[in-house]
TrEMBL record:
It comes from the Bacteria. The keyword Transmembrane helix applies. Keywords: Cell membrane, Ion transport, Membrane, Sodium, Sodium transport, Symport, Transmembrane, Transmembrane helix, Transport. It is found in: Cell membrane. The chain crosses the membrane at residues 30-51, 72-93, 105-126, 138-158, 184-204, 225-246, 266-293, 314-334, 340-361, 368-387, 393-413. Belongs to the sodium:solute symporter (SSF) (TC 2.A.21) family. It comes from Gottfriedia luciferensis. This is Transporter. It is a multi-pass membrane protein. The keyword Metal-binding does not apply. It catalyses: L-proline(in) + Na(+)(in) = L-proline(out) + Na(+)(out). The lineage of its organism: Bacteria, Bacillati, Bacillota, Bacilli, Bacillales.
């Protein structure tokens, strides 16, 4: 269970966690940072019950693709596999963007050099090192993250004091202490939908789901959620320490302010190690899970690979190809971290209800379930310019619910009519 918790924390304490929780705090106030932390914890807690149901129904799976193959017809299965690959690539892209932010802060090198160094390291460590290397480094990575999350904020609050920090925020950024704000509630509700969808459809979490002992699943995921929420709360506190003495422009200016505040080399190295480990552990875990999914669920159904050595070589090749795709995507298109999270929000929101239907339905489900996801995503992006970002996320969920109810109704009456005719 301890290894399961470490493995999940190594996946979910990401560079995004370190940078996007302060960004959400900056944009939506202190309660935005607090809400970000608890939304992730709740999502992991709820996923523990879904995981238990999945393992009871299908104990011998290896990937989410195995489970989807059991529950879906061929058309629906391939639709879900395509969505799964795209969402996994998007997660890798977000980590690459986060790495570029960290590297730019440390070295100020050209973007393509920063990204190629980061991706090359991750491909060697996870793509070539495999699950053994990922699990071998997970303990060290989680220890450095914990040390940074606990020691650095504690050091600052002992040094500066709590009251001066509060007074500084109240003086320079009073809007951050306001809870009765429409955007905050929109952010929290949208974040809940996006977080649930992301956790429920995460390729690595499902990979770990089939590796952890079945009876220990609920407790493992629940404890992981409780521990995980410490990290965004801690890093939000850390960035509050930076901005309480004046203004800021963006996350880069806050990182520079943090570097100026951390006068002790030990704490600066600890912060850099924490951020780097968070980014690389997530990138490595998703990269390995995605390569495994492609081999097991896409290549092997069409071409049997009998030799394990050939599978390993194919995994190496896939890791390099995926790394190249993420490299070019990062170079071509760059956005802020918080924008990246919610840009894909319509996708995860559309996935939420269909995933629950697939898991809690008996036997195979109709193709209209996966098709509802595609239609909901398209419709939500069409209406987004007219209704706003958060509202389009809510509508994405609503569209999928309506389409599934209509599909179920049509299927029910069709069966009833065929029975009456017979």
């Amino acid at each position: 269970m301890g290894m399961g918790i470490i493995s999940l924390l190594a996946r979910w304490v990401t560079g995004t966690t370190i940078l996007s929780s302060p960004e959400s705090m900056i944009k939506y106030g202190v309660f935005g940072g607090i809400g970000y932390a608890f939304l992730g914890a709740i999502a992991l807690f709820v996923f523990s019950f879904i995981g238990k149901k999945v393992r009871q129904e299908y104990p011998d799976g290896l990937t989410i693709g195995d489970y989807l193959k059991k529950k879906l017809h061929p058309l629906g299965y391939w639709i879900m596999i395509c969505i799964l690959i795209l969402t996994s690539l998007h997660i890798l892209y977000i980590q690459s963007m986060t790495a570029s932010t960290l590297f730019h802060f440390l070295f100020n090198l050209p973007l393509y050099i920063e990204i190629i160094i980061f991706i090359s390291f991750c491909v060697l460590f996870a793509g070539f090192g495999g699950l053994k290397m990922i699990h071998g480094l997970a303990g060290f990575q989680v220890i450095t993250m914990f040390a940074a999350a606990i020691l650095i904020p504690l050091y600052f609050f002992v040094k500066e004091g709590v009251q001066p920090v509060y007074d500084g925020i109240k003086l320079y950024h009073p809007y951050m202490l306001v809870i009765d704000h429409y955007d905050l509630w929109g952010f929290l509700f949208s974040g809940l939908l996006v977080g649930f969808g992301q956790f429920f459809f995460d390729i690595t979490s499902w990979h770990r789901l089939f590796m952890i002992e079945s009876k220990k699943l609920p407790l493992t995921f629940s404890i992981s959620g409780l521990i995980w929420c410490i990290f965004p709360l801690s890093f939000s506190c850390l960035f509050i320490i930076v901005i309480f003495t004046g203004g800021f422009t963006d996350i880069q200016s806050i990182l520079v302010g943090l570097a100026n505040k951390i006068t002790t080399p030990f704490f600066f190295i600890l912060f850099v190690l924490c951020a780097f480990n968070a980014i690389t552990s997530t990138f490595g875990a998703v990269l390995h899970s995605l390569a495994s999914l492609i081999i097991i669920n896409i290549i092997e159904p069409f071409r049997t690979i009998k030799n394990d050595q050939k599978k390993i070589k194919l995994a190496y090749l896939l890791s390099v190809m995926i790394g190249a795709i993420i490299f070019f995507a990062t170079i071509i298109q760059s956005k802020k971290i918080i924008e990246l999270l919610f840009y894909s929000g319509n996708v995860y929101s559309a996935l939420l209800f269909p995933i629950l239907v697939i898991v809690f339905s008996k036997g195979k489900v109709g193709n209209y379930i996966p098709i509802s996801i595609v239609i909901s995503i398209i419709l939500s992006y069409i209406v987004q310019p007219y209704v706003g970002e958060f509202q389009s996320i809510w509508l994405s969920l609503l569209f999928s619910i309506v389409i599934i109810i209509l599909g179920f109704t049509i299927q029910f009456f069709s069966k009833k009519e065929s029975v009456n005719m017979s």
